[in-house]
Amino acid sequence: MGGIISVFFSASTDESTKGSSDSVPEPGLGDLPDSCITMILAELDPPEICKLAGLNRAFRIASLADNLWKSKLPSNYEFLMERVLGEPVGYLTKKEIYARLCRPNAFDGGTKEVWLDKVSAKMYLSISSKALKITGMDDRRYWNHIPTGESRFNTVAYLQQIWWVELVGEIEFEFLLPGKYSLFFRLQLGKTLKRFGRRVCDLGRVHGWDIKPVRFQLSTSGCQEATSECYLHDPGNWVHYHAGDFIVENTHMPSRVKFSMVQIDCTHTKGGLSVDSVLICPSKRIESRSSQIT
Protein backbone atom coordinates (compact mmCIF):
# COMPACT_ATOMS: atom_id res chain seq x y z
CA MET A 1 0.00 0.00 0.00
CA GLY A 2 3.01 2.30 0.22
CA GLY A 3 2.63 3.12 -3.49
CA ILE A 4 -0.81 4.57 -2.84
CA ILE A 5 0.60 6.90 -0.20
CA SER A 6 3.40 8.12 -2.48
CA VAL A 7 0.90 8.85 -5.25
CA PHE A 8 -1.25 10.95 -2.93
CA PHE A 9 1.69 12.85 -1.47
CA SER A 10 2.85 13.54 -5.02
CA ALA A 11 -0.59 14.76 -5.94
CA SER A 12 -0.63 17.00 -2.90
CA THR A 13 2.72 18.54 -3.91
CA ASP A 14 1.59 19.15 -7.47
CA GLU A 15 -1.54 20.78 -6.16
CA SER A 16 0.43 23.24 -4.04
CA THR A 17 2.61 24.33 -7.02
CA LYS A 18 -0.24 25.31 -9.34
CA GLY A 19 0.05 28.80 -10.72
CA SER A 20 -2.21 31.42 -9.20
CA SER A 21 -3.04 32.73 -12.68
CA ASP A 22 -5.43 29.84 -13.43
CA SER A 23 -8.94 31.21 -13.46
CA VAL A 24 -10.53 27.84 -12.75
CA PRO A 25 -8.76 25.75 -10.05
CA GLU A 26 -8.21 22.14 -10.95
CA PRO A 27 -9.73 19.46 -8.69
CA GLY A 28 -7.60 18.53 -5.69
CA LEU A 29 -7.61 15.94 -2.94
CA GLY A 30 -10.14 17.91 -0.99
CA ASP A 31 -12.66 17.49 -3.80
CA LEU A 32 -12.78 13.70 -3.55
CA PRO A 33 -16.19 12.37 -2.44
CA ASP A 34 -16.28 11.15 1.17
CA SER A 35 -17.13 7.64 -0.03
CA CYS A 36 -13.94 7.54 -2.14
CA ILE A 37 -11.78 8.70 0.74
CA THR A 38 -13.29 6.07 3.02
CA MET A 39 -12.66 3.34 0.43
CA ILE A 40 -9.04 4.45 0.06
CA LEU A 41 -8.37 4.47 3.79
CA ALA A 42 -10.09 1.13 4.32
CA GLU A 43 -7.48 -0.52 2.07
CA LEU A 44 -4.52 0.85 4.04
CA ASP A 45 -2.72 -0.25 7.17
CA PRO A 46 -3.20 1.91 10.29
CA PRO A 47 0.24 3.65 10.04
CA GLU A 48 -0.56 4.58 6.42
CA ILE A 49 -3.97 5.92 7.44
CA CYS A 50 -2.29 8.22 9.94
CA LYS A 51 0.09 9.49 7.26
CA LEU A 52 -2.72 10.30 4.86
CA ALA A 53 -4.61 12.07 7.64
CA GLY A 54 -1.99 14.82 7.43
CA LEU A 55 -2.73 15.64 3.78
CA ASN A 56 -5.84 17.76 4.25
CA ARG A 57 -8.95 18.28 6.32
CA ALA A 58 -11.08 15.79 4.36
CA PHE A 59 -8.63 12.94 4.93
CA ARG A 60 -8.17 13.92 8.57
CA ILE A 61 -11.90 13.79 9.25
CA ALA A 62 -12.30 10.51 7.39
CA SER A 63 -9.40 8.99 9.35
CA LEU A 64 -11.35 9.44 12.60
CA ALA A 65 -14.41 7.47 11.50
CA ASP A 66 -15.43 4.71 13.91
CA ASN A 67 -16.42 2.36 11.10
CA LEU A 68 -12.95 2.63 9.59
CA TRP A 69 -11.13 1.67 12.80
CA LYS A 70 -13.69 -0.95 13.75
CA SER A 71 -12.75 -2.78 10.54
CA LYS A 72 -9.12 -2.84 11.73
CA LEU A 73 -9.90 -4.19 15.20
CA PRO A 74 -10.29 -7.91 15.94
CA SER A 75 -13.95 -8.85 16.23
CA ASN A 76 -13.64 -9.68 19.95
CA TYR A 77 -11.57 -6.65 20.97
CA GLU A 78 -14.04 -5.89 23.76
CA PHE A 79 -12.75 -8.94 25.64
CA LEU A 80 -9.29 -7.46 25.67
CA MET A 81 -10.53 -4.07 26.86
CA GLU A 82 -12.44 -5.62 29.74
CA ARG A 83 -9.94 -8.39 30.63
CA VAL A 84 -6.81 -6.26 30.49
CA LEU A 85 -7.70 -2.59 30.76
CA GLY A 86 -10.82 -3.04 32.85
CA GLU A 87 -12.43 -0.13 31.03
CA PRO A 88 -15.82 0.26 29.35
CA VAL A 89 -15.55 0.86 25.62
CA GLY A 90 -18.55 3.14 25.29
CA TYR A 91 -16.81 6.48 25.82
CA LEU A 92 -13.78 5.77 23.60
CA THR A 93 -13.58 6.14 19.84
CA LYS A 94 -12.50 3.08 17.88
CA LYS A 95 -9.25 4.85 16.96
CA GLU A 96 -8.52 5.46 20.66
CA ILE A 97 -9.23 1.80 21.40
CA TYR A 98 -6.87 0.69 18.64
CA ALA A 99 -4.12 2.98 19.92
CA ARG A 100 -4.50 1.73 23.52
CA LEU A 101 -4.42 -1.91 22.53
CA CYS A 102 -1.22 -1.37 20.53
CA ARG A 103 0.58 -0.30 23.70
CA PRO A 104 2.01 -2.91 26.10
CA ASN A 105 -0.85 -3.40 28.58
CA ALA A 106 0.00 -5.04 31.91
CA PHE A 107 -2.46 -7.26 33.77
CA ASP A 108 -2.56 -9.96 36.49
CA GLY A 109 -0.61 -7.80 38.91
CA GLY A 110 1.88 -6.68 36.29
CA THR A 111 3.13 -10.23 35.62
CA LYS A 112 1.75 -10.33 32.07
CA GLU A 113 1.56 -7.90 29.15
CA VAL A 114 -0.43 -8.00 25.93
CA TRP A 115 -0.38 -5.75 22.88
CA LEU A 116 -1.45 -5.66 19.24
CA ASP A 117 0.87 -5.23 16.29
CA LYS A 118 0.23 -1.73 14.89
CA VAL A 119 0.01 -2.95 11.30
CA SER A 120 -1.67 -6.36 11.45
CA ALA A 121 -3.56 -6.13 14.79
CA LYS A 122 -2.14 -9.58 15.65
CA MET A 123 -1.74 -10.23 19.35
CA TYR A 124 1.48 -10.63 21.33
CA LEU A 125 1.50 -11.91 24.90
CA SER A 126 4.44 -11.85 27.32
CA ILE A 127 4.50 -13.67 30.67
CA SER A 128 7.00 -12.71 33.37
CA SER A 129 9.19 -15.21 35.20
CA LYS A 130 7.27 -14.16 38.33
CA ALA A 131 4.16 -15.81 36.86
CA LEU A 132 5.94 -19.17 36.51
CA LYS A 133 6.14 -21.98 39.04
CA ILE A 134 9.87 -22.54 39.49
CA THR A 135 11.16 -25.47 41.53
CA GLY A 136 13.36 -24.17 44.36
CA MET A 137 12.32 -20.53 43.87
CA ASP A 138 11.63 -20.12 47.59
CA ASP A 139 15.19 -21.05 48.52
CA ARG A 140 17.63 -18.21 47.86
CA ARG A 141 20.51 -20.70 47.72
CA TYR A 142 19.14 -21.69 44.31
CA TRP A 143 17.04 -18.95 42.72
CA ASN A 144 16.34 -15.27 43.24
CA HIS A 145 14.76 -12.39 41.37
CA ILE A 146 17.19 -9.68 40.30
CA PRO A 147 16.36 -6.24 38.84
CA THR A 148 17.42 -5.44 35.28
CA GLY A 149 16.59 -2.98 32.55
CA GLU A 150 16.82 -5.75 29.96
CA SER A 151 13.37 -7.10 30.73
CA ARG A 152 10.04 -5.45 29.99
CA PHE A 153 9.11 -6.56 33.54
CA ASN A 154 12.29 -5.01 35.03
CA THR A 155 13.20 -8.25 36.78
CA VAL A 156 14.41 -11.75 35.89
CA ALA A 157 14.78 -15.02 37.78
CA TYR A 158 18.42 -15.99 38.21
CA LEU A 159 19.61 -19.51 38.96
CA GLN A 160 22.83 -19.83 40.95
CA GLN A 161 23.02 -23.63 41.12
CA ILE A 162 20.61 -26.54 41.38
CA TRP A 163 20.26 -30.21 40.46
CA TRP A 164 16.65 -30.17 39.22
CA VAL A 165 15.46 -27.39 36.89
CA GLU A 166 11.72 -27.14 36.28
CA LEU A 167 9.70 -24.10 35.18
CA VAL A 168 5.95 -24.46 34.59
CA GLY A 169 3.36 -21.91 33.47
CA GLU A 170 -0.23 -21.71 32.32
CA ILE A 171 -2.49 -19.07 30.81
CA GLU A 172 -6.13 -19.01 29.72
CA PHE A 173 -6.88 -16.32 27.17
CA GLU A 174 -9.04 -15.39 24.19
CA PHE A 175 -6.68 -15.05 21.24
CA LEU A 176 -8.04 -12.30 19.03
CA LEU A 177 -7.25 -13.74 15.61
CA PRO A 178 -7.32 -17.34 14.37
CA GLY A 179 -4.12 -18.93 13.13
CA LYS A 180 -0.86 -20.47 14.28
CA TYR A 181 0.92 -19.15 17.38
CA SER A 182 4.42 -19.89 18.65
CA LEU A 183 5.65 -20.03 22.23
CA PHE A 184 9.19 -19.02 23.21
CA PHE A 185 11.20 -18.95 26.43
CA ARG A 186 13.48 -15.89 26.64
CA LEU A 187 16.64 -17.03 28.43
CA GLN A 188 20.25 -15.99 28.90
CA LEU A 189 23.29 -17.87 30.13
CA GLY A 190 24.92 -15.47 32.55
CA LYS A 191 23.90 -12.49 34.66
CA THR A 192 23.87 -9.01 33.16
CA LEU A 193 25.67 -6.28 35.11
CA LYS A 194 26.51 -2.62 34.60
CA ARG A 195 30.13 -1.56 35.07
CA PHE A 196 31.17 2.02 34.41
CA GLY A 197 27.95 2.49 32.45
CA ARG A 198 28.64 -0.43 30.13
CA ARG A 199 26.85 -3.76 29.80
CA VAL A 200 28.83 -6.80 30.91
CA CYS A 201 27.68 -10.36 31.55
CA ASP A 202 28.94 -12.39 34.49
CA LEU A 203 29.46 -15.97 33.24
CA GLY A 204 31.17 -17.21 36.40
CA ARG A 205 28.32 -19.50 37.49
CA VAL A 206 27.38 -20.82 34.03
CA HIS A 207 27.79 -24.60 33.96
CA GLY A 208 25.99 -27.86 33.21
CA TRP A 209 24.02 -26.80 30.13
CA ASP A 210 26.28 -28.52 27.61
CA ILE A 211 25.87 -32.00 29.12
CA LYS A 212 22.18 -32.69 28.46
CA PRO A 213 19.62 -30.73 26.43
CA VAL A 214 16.73 -28.78 27.94
CA ARG A 215 13.22 -29.99 27.11
CA PHE A 216 10.41 -27.54 26.29
CA GLN A 217 6.78 -28.65 26.20
CA LEU A 218 3.35 -27.13 25.64
CA SER A 219 -0.20 -28.42 25.57
CA THR A 220 -3.56 -26.75 24.99
CA SER A 221 -7.14 -27.29 26.09
CA GLY A 222 -7.78 -28.42 22.51
CA CYS A 223 -5.51 -31.45 23.01
CA GLN A 224 -2.64 -30.01 20.99
CA GLU A 225 0.86 -30.88 22.18
CA ALA A 226 4.39 -29.94 21.19
CA THR A 227 7.84 -30.87 22.48
CA SER A 228 11.32 -29.65 21.59
CA GLU A 229 14.82 -30.16 22.96
CA CYS A 230 18.01 -28.13 22.59
CA TYR A 231 21.20 -27.19 24.36
CA LEU A 232 21.28 -23.68 25.80
CA HIS A 233 23.85 -21.63 23.94
CA ASP A 234 25.28 -18.19 23.17
CA PRO A 235 26.36 -17.10 26.70
CA GLY A 236 25.88 -13.43 27.44
CA ASN A 237 22.99 -12.89 25.00
CA TRP A 238 19.24 -13.22 25.33
CA VAL A 239 17.88 -16.03 23.18
CA HIS A 240 14.30 -16.98 22.33
CA TYR A 241 14.03 -20.77 22.55
CA HIS A 242 11.14 -22.17 20.53
CA ALA A 243 8.99 -24.48 22.67
CA GLY A 244 6.38 -25.24 20.02
CA ASP A 245 3.35 -24.06 18.03
CA PHE A 246 -0.40 -24.35 18.45
CA ILE A 247 -3.45 -23.47 16.35
CA VAL A 248 -6.26 -21.15 17.45
CA GLU A 249 -9.53 -21.68 15.60
CA ASN A 250 -12.30 -20.30 17.82
CA THR A 251 -11.31 -16.80 18.93
CA HIS A 252 -14.47 -16.30 20.98
CA MET A 253 -13.60 -19.09 23.42
CA PRO A 254 -10.69 -18.98 25.88
CA SER A 255 -7.76 -21.23 25.03
CA ARG A 256 -5.76 -22.74 27.90
CA VAL A 257 -2.07 -23.15 27.19
CA LYS A 258 0.27 -25.00 29.57
CA PHE A 259 4.02 -24.85 29.02
CA SER A 260 7.19 -25.97 30.73
CA MET A 261 10.97 -26.05 30.60
CA VAL A 262 12.81 -28.89 32.36
CA GLN A 263 16.30 -30.30 32.78
CA ILE A 264 15.96 -32.98 35.45
CA ASP A 265 19.08 -35.08 34.91
CA CYS A 266 20.38 -35.18 38.48
CA THR A 267 23.82 -36.52 37.53
CA HIS A 268 25.12 -32.94 37.40
CA THR A 269 24.26 -29.46 38.66
CA LYS A 270 23.24 -26.54 36.48
CA GLY A 271 23.71 -22.83 37.13
CA GLY A 272 24.16 -19.30 35.85
CA LEU A 273 20.80 -19.09 34.02
CA SER A 274 18.67 -15.93 33.71
CA VAL A 275 14.97 -16.45 32.95
CA ASP A 276 13.14 -13.39 31.66
CA SER A 277 9.77 -14.36 30.25
CA VAL A 278 7.64 -16.49 27.96
CA LEU A 279 6.45 -14.96 24.69
CA ILE A 280 3.40 -16.08 22.70
CA CYS A 281 3.18 -14.51 19.25
CA PRO A 282 2.03 -15.18 15.67
CA SER A 283 4.28 -17.81 14.11
CA LYS A 284 7.32 -16.72 12.09
CA ARG A 285 7.33 -13.23 13.57
CA ILE A 286 10.40 -13.30 15.82
CA GLU A 287 14.08 -14.05 15.50
CA SER A 288 15.45 -16.80 17.73
CA ARG A 289 18.16 -14.50 19.13
CA SER A 290 17.60 -11.09 20.65
CA SER A 291 19.71 -8.98 22.98
CA GLN A 292 17.07 -6.23 23.13
CA ILE A 293 13.98 -5.75 25.24
CA THR A 294 11.24 -7.51 23.27
TrEMBL record:
It comes from the Eukaryota. CDD domains: F-box_AtSKIP3-like. Coiled coil: none annotated. Residues 26-72 form the F-box domain. Pfam families: F-box, PP2. This is F-box protein PP2-A13-like. It comes from Punica granatum (Pomegranate).
